[in-house]
Amino acid sequence: MVRGLLTKLIAAATITAALAGCSDADFSDAEKRTIVSMSLAALAPLPPDPTNRFADDPGAAALGATLFFDTGMSRDGNVACGTCHKIDRQFQDDLPRGIGVAETNRRTMPLAGVARDPFFFWDGRRDSLWSQALVPLENVLEHAGTRTAYAHYLKRRFGERYERIFQPLPELSMLPASAGPFGTPAEKAAWAGMSDAERKGVDRIFSDIGKAIAAFERSLVHGKTRLDRFADALAQGRSPSAEDDLSAEERHGLKLFIGKANCSTCHTGPRFTDNHFHNTGVPPVAGLPADRGRIAVVDEVLADPFNCAGKFRDGGEEACGELRFVQKSSPELVRAYKTPSLRNVAGRPPYMHAGQFATLEQVVSHYATAPKSVEGESEIHAVALSDGERAALVAFLKTLSE
Amino acid sequence: MTSAWRMVVGAFGLVALAIGFLSVVFLTAPAAPGPDLARSKNSAKGLYALSIAPEAGEPRQGDLHAWVVTVKTRQGAPVEGAEIAIGGGMPEHAHGLPTSPEATAYLGDGRYRIEGMKFSMTGWWQLKFGITAPAGADEATFNLVL
Question: Are residues B79 and B105 in the same domain?
Fold first, then answer.
């Protein structure tokens, strides 16, 4: 009698324990909603960019594609946008830091979905895709060219195409062959020696180069991944096909990603980014110039002549809310860097803004241990993750590849 | 059955019972009560009655959008010419708002438009309004869960 009761109790307890254990493999309704919200199917259509009236002009996009891959768009004739943003490598270069004319200080970012960002670069130092495209052209470590040199080159090589899309080109023959606000002292002096009208004419051509490249970049989108097909099946209440189903380890990683590991707090939505900037305690790279992240470039984006408040913007100023209401002085901006999208992340080591980590395992370990930031406060709190949980997170991240 | 065998079965049974009991507790525990989500409340010192509403539908994560805050005296008279400072953030993540919202227009009847709001993450946000008007300076904190 006692033995019978004991046996029944043991059986009941075992079943209850087993059921509790099952909850690891299945998803709650709230988790399912989160997973569905991460599918590409949940991505809203790409909004228009009223600040660039050529943003959806096919001719401008075609010229932009030509310019993107043209090494003539550089001082030494060897560097194009596509040199670092490699078309067959997710538009990035697999290097810790991109190499243009010389090695830069930052990891080259992939470009799929880039047109959806409110701010550009790892630190958000530009506020539009078209103004972003102008910066590397004049950066001495990247294309290292000058504004008048680009204007001359554009007129010589693509003048007819440009005029068909944009507007008649001004007379440029009297302008210095190479002059601009960056470049050598002689080039800066030559730029300063030009009239306001001449500078404005060159700036107009320069901004149109950015607008053409931006029009091309708007076409770069993410493709569907296994996670998307899995999430779409969840959304439709059907079982995923065998090849789209996630393994027990991948499901475990997904559950951690949206749960205990807190990854989806920032890596959120179909692009796996909150489009914002955070100090996550990523260590600096020895030997590189001091890098304070977002706080160091707030003044730069506010003063940029090609920003949304400037005279090269098309459309009305109502499109400039992001710049107008930008966070200007918060201590959280110190060593804050953009939350990158995690789509296709497994295929593009190394990671972080200066290629600090060689593997996803190192990245997960960094976020689990949450070391202090060298400056400012890291927003990350340590999470105790077992070796198995870390491996599960990495396994899940691999389901984000096309 | 030997007494040693009984002891083993008994011990196993007790452990299984304990696991089962903890599992039931864990599975059926109510979620922690959320923050107070009222969109109308009195300011901390009781000088003003505030209410807030998004200007065009409930905000979505990541969208720049506007709110309307209505400031009245405790007696219900609209407060005009108030200076409004906006702050806030995510208490659980120890960070502030991702933007610098501002009161950009007085809409009449104690209503002020707050532009430049953005919630970059889902979760619990706090919005703090500092009100300075002839009746004095006071503030009110609202909770939002996205």
Answer: yes
Q: Is A267 annotated as a binding residue?
A: yes
Determine the number of helices (DSSP H) and then strands (DSSP E) in chain A.
Answer: 14, 2
SS3 letters across B40-64: EEECCCCCEEEEEEECCCCCCCCCC
For helices A196-217 and A147-165, the axis angle rounded to 10 degrees is 60
- Say whether B27 and A23 touch across the interface (CB within 8 A): yes
> Rounded CA gap, A296 and A391, in Å?
36
What is the pLDDT at residue B6? 74
What is the CB neighbour count within 10 angstroms for residue A273?
Answer: 21
Measure A379 CA to nearest chain B CA, in Å: 7
Examine the pLDDT at A17 and tell me if it is beyond 60: no
Q: Domains in chain A, ordered, with CATH?
A: 26-46+224-293+334-400 (1.10.760.10), 58-217 (1.10.760.10)
Which one-letter amino acid corresponds to residue A172? L
Chain B hits for A269, CB-CB cut-off 8 Å, are: 61-62
Range of the domain at B21: 1-30
Q: Which residues of A touch B63 (CB under 8 A)?
A: none
Mean of pLDDT values over A175-203: 98
Would you say residue B46 lies in a domain? Answer: yes
Residue of A2, A8, A9, A10 to mutate, interface with B, max B Cβ within 10 Å: A10
The predicted-structure confidence for A244-287, as pLDDT tens digits, reads as follows 999 999 999 999 999 999 999 999 999 999 999 999 999 999 99
The interface pTM score, or ipTM, of the predicted complex is 0.82
* Residue A93 near residue A86 (C-beta atoms within 8 A): yes
Alpha helices in A193-244 (DSSP H): 196-217, 226-235
> How many domains does chain B fold into?
2
Q: How confident is the model at residue A218 (pLDDT cuts 50, 70, 90)?
A: very high
Contacts of A326 in chain B (CB under 8 A): 99-100
Give tens-digit pLDDT for B117-136.
999 988 899 999 999 999 99
Convert the pLDDT of each residue in B65-99 to its tens digit.
Answer: 999 999 999 999 999 999 999 999 998 877 899 99
Nearest C-alpha neighbor of A275 from the set A114, A58, A163: A114
**Is-contact A242 A14, C-beta < 8 A?**
no
Among B23, B102, B146, pick the best mutation site for testing chain A contact (most A Cβ within 10 A): B23
